Recover the amino acids of this structure.
């Protein structure tokens, strides 16, 4: 394989990683809005969105390596900080929820959501 075809293959891989990361981030954001419980709402962004942003950052590192032939330390630092702070923030949210007696259910719905909990129209 020629170096140009390898570069093109790596760029396609980076593009696929960006699309996958965007989809994970979208799923995490929708989960944050749609789930009922504070603990479920905490789970969606800390798992799916962290993975999505991690994929986008990895794609950025790969793309900058293809373009400049050097690794970008900025994206790596952001990824390390993201993966270090997401579990800590989830732990703190869970601790506050437990301390205030939020053991599940009864979380306020989204502002435009007129459905009641247990409504058969929920999807």
């Amino acid at each position: 394989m020629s170096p140009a075809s390898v570069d093109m293959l790596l760029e396609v891989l980076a593009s696929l990683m960006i699309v996958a990361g965007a989809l994970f981030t979208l799923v995490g954001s929708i989960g944050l809005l749609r789930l009922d419980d504070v603990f479920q709402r905490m789970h969606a962004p800390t798992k799916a969105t962290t993975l999505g942003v991690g994929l986008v950052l990895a794609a950025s590192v790969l793309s900058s390596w293809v373009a400049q032939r050097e690794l970008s330390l900025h994206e790596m630092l952001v990824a390390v900080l993201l993966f270090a702070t997401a579990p800590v923030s989830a732990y703190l949210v869970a601790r506050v929820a437990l301390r205030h007696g939020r053991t599940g259910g009864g979380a306020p719905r989204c502002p435009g959501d007129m459905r009641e909990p247990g409504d058969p129209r929920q999807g």
